[in-house]
Amino acid sequence: MTSRERVLAAFAHREPDRVPAWCGASPEFWEKAKKSLRLDDEGVRNRLGDDFRRVYAEYRGPDLNLSNECTWKSPFGVERTGIGYGQPTSHPLKNAKTIDQVLDYPWPDPSWMDVSNIRIEAAKHHDSYAILGGDWSPFWHDAIDLVGHEALYYLMYDTSDVARAIFEKITDYYFQVSSNIFEAAGDMIDIFFIGNDLGGQTGPLLGIDLFEKFILPSLKRLIDLGHRYGLKVMLHCCGGFRPLIPSMIQAGLDALHALQPYCGGMEPAGLKRDFGERIVLNGAIDSQSVLIEGNPDYVRQETMRTLNILSPGGGYIAGASHDYILEETPLENVLAMFDTIQEYRRN
User: Fold this and answer.
1) By C-alpha distance, which of 288, 254, 259, 146 is closest to 198?
2) Contacting residues for 288 by C-beta, under 8 A, at least 6 apart
3) Which range marks the domain in which residue 140 is found?
4) How many domains would you assign to the chain?
5) What does each C-alpha distance from 111 to 103, 179, 269 come to in angstroms?
6) Is-above-0.85 flag for pTM?
7) Phi, psi (5° rounding) for residue 130?
8) CATH number at residue 106
C-alpha cells in the first residue's frame, strides 16, 4: 500500500498493511533530528515513516507591526509574547456587551491568506501520501484571546448573543479561508485538519451544555465544509474531553487527534471500546512519561501495548499523544516509537 492508501483504509475502518504513522514535531526538535540524522526535511519524514504531508496557505496581509517584546500576532490582532506562541498581552473584546461592538471590531480579511501555491505543493505528494489541508481554525482559542478565558465563560452565561456573535465572526473567517483553499486544491487534499483544545488534565474545559450551545455550531460548520469537498475532517484536541466525543461524532467528525492517555477519561481501551467503530483515533502513545522520560526499550514496550489496544479492526493512526514533539524528547526514543510502528504486525 502507499501511505495514502494506508491512511484512507484506516479512515474506512479497515486494517491496512500496517498501522499508519503520524509525526508532528516542534521546529526545535525537527532541527535537532535533521542535524543528528544528517537528513533534510523529506529525509527525516521518510526515516520516521510518516504517512502524511501537509500544505499551508501563506499570509500576505498587512504588515503585522508587532509591539516591542511581542513575538506573534493572531489574524484577529491579538499580540502574544513568551515561549512559542506565548500568551496574549490584551483582550480587545473583553468589555464587549453588544452585538454592534462585535460587528464593529476590525475582523481580518480571508483574502490575506494566499492559496495560490497550495495546488503545486499538494501535487508533489498527492499520489503517495495523505494530504492534510485547510486552515487550523482555532476558533475557541481565538475567542479566549479576544475576550479572556474567565470573561468568556461569564459572557456565554450572561450575554449569550454577544458570545455567539464572536464565535460566528471568528468562524466566518476560518470558513472562508478554508473554502478558498479547497476551491484551489480540494481535489488534491484528503483531510481537513483543524485544532481546538477543549480538555484539561482531568476533564473538559466546559460542560456539554456550553459546548453544544457555543462550540459545536462552529465545529459543525467546518465539518460540513470539509465534507462538501469530499474530505475527511480530523480535530486536534488536547486533554480530557471524553464527555464531548458523542456530540462530535453526531456532528459528523471523522477523526480525533492526539489522545492523551493519562488525562481524565482518555484511556485508550475505553476510547476504542466506546467510539472506535465510529471515529478514527490518532495518537495515544504518551509524550511525557514514555517519550520524554523513558528509554528506547520502554518506548517500544508502550508503543506495542498501545498498538495492540487500538489497531484491531482499523480506525487507528499511531503517533505521539502530543502533536508537538518537544526538543527535550530524546531522538532515540522517537526513533524507537516509529520503528516499532513500522515493524508492528498484529498476530
Assistant:
1) 259
2) 262, 321, 322
3) 3-343
4) 1
5) 19, 11, 44
6) yes
7) -75, 125
8) 3.20.20.210
